[in-house]
Amino acid sequence: MQGNLRQLSEFYLAHLKQNTREIHFRNVRNAFNKDLFIVDLETKASDITKDGIIGILHTISERGAEVMANRMRSYLSAMFQYGMIFDHSVESRAKQIKFFNQSSNYGSKSSKE
Questions:
Q1: How far is the C-alpha of 6 from the C-alpha of 97, rounded, in Å?
Q2: Beta pairing partners, 25
Q3: Residue 102: which domain range?
């Protein structure tokens, strides 16, 4: 089954909760709640384009939150990287979910501007 953006963000946040400090988990969760969820979360993770990521970052920048836009770019890059690693894990096979058919990480390719 092809994983969507909602699943990817949920899996990634669960991963952060288990493997990082509470403050980092909360920062990412709050950023996602405020800004990531402005896009259609039912979109397949592999269908998210560079333009989609830039749209999220632009929305944040428009309100004058340049530092938050930069942080969100980092959070998204890490989330997509996690998804690519997840696709090659035992957990992916057990849950029968794959997020990507290719090895693109649009979050890392997006400009900070």
A1: 13
A2: none
A3: 5-109
